[in-house]
Design brief:
- This protein is α+β, with helices and mostly antiparallel strands.
- It has one domain: L,D-transpeptidase catalytic domain-like.
- The chain is built from four helices and eight strands; from the N terminus they run αβββββαβαβαβ.
- Helix 3 links the parallel strand 6 and strand 7.
- The longest helix has 17 residues.
Length: about 170
């Protein structure tokens, strides 16, 4: 009986470790992320080598550069990954350094806020939020870049803070 209990405990521990959203990555360092909004694609690169590619979803008003809070646009330009959120409302998330000084100056000139909290993230944790997001169509975020949760787990493991991200129209 003790042996059976021990075996079941070991199997349960192993399975829970396998299902963890925190993956390990032992490949080449990701040096740059390239996002092509019009193609809805994101590429992770090491030097000149393509390491991974993903289909993405964007802000609900994807066309154009993010200028103001609430405009639903995904920024364009070069930024960097500046934070990690393992407890995100969207599975996992990596923060993008938007707004930069130019973005802030433009918004201030127009008497508005540039917004912030732009991330690469997974799908909403709450089923109702995901149902609402899907009703909004292909692009549903408030300006972020979204991928499937399993893909976000890979990206979260692969990308370090400080990695450059260039977002093209």
């Amino acid at each position: 009986m003790k042996r059976r209990f021990f075996l079941l405990s070991a199997v349960a521990t192993f399975l829970s470790a396998c299902s963890s959203k925190f993956k390990r990555y032992n490949g080449p360092e990701i040096t740059h992320i390239f996002v092509y909004k019009d193609r809805r694609r994101m590429y992770l690169v090491s030097g000149e080598e393509l390491v991974a590619k993903y289909k993405i979803r964007l802000g609900f008003t994807a066309r154009g550069h993010k200028r103001f809070e609430g405009d639903g646009k995904t920024p364009e330009g070069t930024y960097y990954i500046d934070r990690r959120n393992p407890n995100s409302l969207f599975h996992l998330s990596l923060g993008i350094s938007y707004p930069n000084a130019e973005d802030r100056a433009f918004a201030e000139y127009h008497g508005r806020s540039p917004g912030g909290d732009i991330f690469i993230h997974g799908r909403p944790n709450e089923k109702e939020d995901w149902k609402r997001a899907r009703k909004n169509g292909r692009d549903w975020t408030a300006g972020c870049i979204s991928v499937k949760n399993s893909e976000m787990e890979e990206i979260y493991a692969m990308v370090e803070n400080g990695t450059l991200i260039t977002i093209f129209p």
